[in-house]
Amino acid sequence: MLPTGSGKSLCYQLPSYILHAQVLIVSPLLSLMQDQVEQIKIRGEKKVIALNSFLSFKEKKQALKNLQHYKFIFISPEMLNLAEISEALSSCSIRLFVVDEAHCISQWGPDFRPDYLQLGAIKEKLGSPVTLALTATATVKIRADICQSLKMASPDEWVYSVNRPNIALKVEQLSSFQEKIHTLKQFIETLSSPGIVYFSSKKLADELAEEMNQTTAKKISSYHAGLEQDQRILIQQQFLTDQLDWIFATSAFGMGVNKENIRTIIHFHLPSSMEAFVQEIGRAGRDGEKSLSILLYLSKDEQITTNLLELERPSLRQISEFEKIKHTASGLKEIEEKTGLSEVQNRVLHYYAKIETNHSNWAGHVNQLILKRMVEKKRKIDQMVTYVTTDNCRRQLIVRCFDETNSIIQPFCCDQCGFPLESYIGSLGSEQRKVITWQNRLASIFKENENDGWTKDY
Amino acid sequence: MTYLDAILLLCFRLFNGDRSRSAIFHLISGKKTSQTIQDAHLYGAHDFFQIYPHLSRKSFDQSCERLIMNKYLIEFQEQRWRVSEDGENALDAYFKNHPFPFYLKGWLYHDRATIFWKRLLLLSQSLSNYIHQENRFFPVQRDPDIQHWVKHTFLNWKDDRRKNTKKLYLELTKIFMKNKFPDHPDYIVQQMTGFQLIGQTPRQLADHFKTDESEVHIRFLNTLHYILTEIQDKNTYPILNSIQKDITQKEFVLTVSTEKTLRYIQQFYTIEKIAQIRNLKTSTIEDHIIEIALMVQTFSIEPYVELSLQDEIWLAANSIRNKRMKEIKDLVPRASFFQIRLVLVSKGRTDNKWKIPYLNTLDSGLSERVKKKSSKV
User: Fold this and answer.
1) Where is the Helicase C-terminal domain (chain A) (predicted)?
2) Which domain holds residue B141?
């Protein structure tokens, strides 16, 4: 278990070259997978492929035919189920089996992915290669789950502290929504950027980004899964090249974004778990420089997060409907349309349909199981409420959540221990950027005009 | 009114209540069904085909609701809408302050424009990094076909890379500087990516120009289609032309069955003979011929309606309102209904009808004023 940005991918890339071994990497998020592939390609390695639903039929066929020639094979967990894939994989000699974001395996984790549960069986089918499970956040309980699911008997565990000493922690309690927006605006204008503001609503991220981009001197754009891929790539690249000061994002942004100099992470809404929170603030300060996390909290904010969770839960009626049509429906899409289930809900129910058999009242039983998970998730939210309302050191509270017992005393710790916010004020003026004329831009792209000065402005 | 609202009014005006709202949604989002494609041609709306490929049904409905609420559309029959007097006025007022998209050729260019644009973006980014001596960068296009084409071109150019980069720059500059260039080059250039200079998204451009994304998109598309038309001159624009010369596009799309009928027609079979061979009713074959006459501009209907009869029917059709077939038949009793339909679809194609009311603004300098107004950077 390593914090984000500390070089987890090196742990399988280096051995692959030393051992001349073919590596299979299971990765849960499509966008993350694309980013990982791009990052390997950019250092000159071409023998890398991502097997996911983005591939066209033709590309997939081509890739599967040549699978043994790839050094790094990234795959999404649901793809591993397909017969043609496991057939193609059996023609390879996978010597290193990597499970990225391994906490998705745990039913108790916030990002539970049912497909991850079969990874143990798949590993055995591949001849039990050396297995590496990677995660940035996992409690002792989740780590035990990972070992059990992946059938790792006595693994070597490398656990690093979740504590990131260079990130100061602050919670800002507010009394109204208006005040929250006002405070956010002040922070945007004064605190060091580049930075990310996390929202749980796409719409709010869009609206506030547009508003503050117009009314402040900062360059701000929103980023979420609702944007088209072309736009997502541009915004991500603008952020990486420091053409943007702030990104207003949903949790879709961040994984796989390797940017060292992110200075500030602000949460506009309460994250759904301590795991998610630690992952998100962990994107700050990878260069080791002083960075800041601020969580904006309005009393009863946890209600929003809980409501979102409730929306995620399929109703008993939907579960029964699913049970009725699952055998006759032609595909996942049809089930989703007829029952109104989301893609994730559908996947969860399919999982339960597979493992929870022999119940006279299947729907009722599964509903109970899902309710039990809800209770667990609400407990996670309560943990975040405790983080917000505690009178003690927030850093201490975070490490306790991950079962670490070391006591930490450090400067620039948290607002409970006290630190001067002034030392996180960003420089003004240098952030100002003008948009260059099309003539200059075109010349700059094609290096046609050596006129000094304006290229640096941008 | 947003630009999308204005475009929708133009479409409602063309369909004149003959088709449902959904038909317009399918047209501009670019649904490739024979119904949509035939409608597009019959009503002279094919230039709007797929001009908003990413439009969600929700945004479309919101836009319609806005038009209805402002009484720009009136429901004269259930679910049938026409542009009202207020709507006409609002539309005229709107295009006095916003450039009219004269160069849109949705049906002709929809595929070609997308591929050309993606290739141009990635090729420029690659060349830019190359001449800045950077050989590592994150491509702004991930589509493997686009990447493959750019890689191939880049390798092909070998020793000519510098020379061709310069040429590409000069060709782009030349086209942007043309007097006739329809809008501000920002809509193209600010979206382009170079070495350490990442392109702006349409939303960011909308923010910058203080307008809505639907306007940015159409102004971009209008200039892109203009560019595609211009660069067909491969002597003046050899590099730009080469970016799209291999993109083939079907000129027309026929249903499978109609396609079969067409092949028999090309071998001079009669309607009755084709019906017999294909074991179909003659009326079905006639429907196919109507579809062909509509979609294939070069298709001659003379074998089915002699010229003098064509004129007679057309004259009769224009003498009565609504072009109702029964009334035409009364005036020209010797024509069959099939012949009347055939003349109506082949002569009745009203290409360019949508832009005729605005042609006077094209060269009056107004578009120039609109250009200037929005180009304060």
Assistant:
1) 183-336
2) 106-249
Report yes or no: B196 at the A interface, CB cutoff 8 Å. yes
What DSSP assignment string belongs to A129-187? Answer: -EEEE--S---HHHHHHHHHHTT-SS-------S--TTEEEEEEEESSHHHHHHHHHHH
Domains of chain A: 10-149 (3.40.50.300), 167-304+413-424 (3.40.50.300), 433-458 (no CATH)
Question: Does the ipTM exceed 0.95?
Answer: no
Residues B216 and B276 in one domain: no
Residue whose entry in the numeric block shows the structure tokens 């009394």: A175
Q: What is the rounded CA–CA span in Å between residue B137 and residue B198?
A: 11
Do residue B202 and residue A231 have CB atoms under 8 angstroms apart?
yes
Domain annotation covers residue B132: yes
CA distance A305 to A309: 6
H or E segment and range at residue A75: strand A72-75
Tens-of-pLDDT digits for all 377 residues of chain B?
Answer: 999 999 999 999 998 888 889 999 999 999 887 778 878 888 889 999 999 999 999 999 999 999 999 999 999 888 889 999 999 999 999 999 999 999 999 988 988 999 999 999 999 999 999 999 998 899 999 888 899 999 999 999 989 999 999 999 999 999 999 989 999 999 999 999 999 999 999 999 998 898 999 999 999 999 999 999 999 999 999 999 999 999 876 666 788 888 999 999 999 999 999 999 999 999 999 989 988 988 887 888 999 999 999 999 988 888 876 667 788 899 999 999 999 989 888 887 777 788 888 877 765 444 554 554 444 33
pTM of the model: 0.83
Chain mean position to CA A56: 25
Subunit contact B138:A38, Cβ cutoff 8 A: yes
Asked whether residue B283 is assigned to any structural domain, the reply reads: yes
B229 in contact with A, Cβ within 8 Å:
no
Q: Are B68 and B130 contained in the same domain?
A: no
On whether both B130 and B263 belong to a single domain, the answer is no
Shortest Cα–Cα distance, A443 to chain B (Å): 8
Cβ contact (<8 Å) for A445 and B138?
no
Chain A neighbours among B 29-68 (CB < 8 Å)? 54
How many angstroms separate the CA of residue A238 from the nearest CA in chain B? 6
Domain end point (choices B206, B232, B249): B249
